């Protein structure tokens, strides 16, 4: 996903450690996985991962509540434009609306990813008007 969207090669050990840390501590992040099932030769049902997203939280003193950030969005190429992300989004949106203290959903998107922009807009999301700046401090693994 990082290479496809940002042309970044990630260190597999760092990513594995990051995912393991998030799974071990739900306060860091939560993962959601969309699975597609298929019947093979009319007999055996197999499941394949179609897409995923990760949620993190950001406290907002302005709103006295949490923003849920959608991150690490990925839909496998064979499953794109088939509603996989929409299903993940709607599931997370329902959870957020039913969780006291959650004020909304946010995500960031690459400026030039027009397909993603259209997808998010079709789901009712709007451009929040912010640009993201960062200072990155090398690896922390």
TrEMBL record:
Residues 1-141 form the N-acetyltransferase domain. It comes from the Bacteria. This is GNAT family N-acetyltransferase.
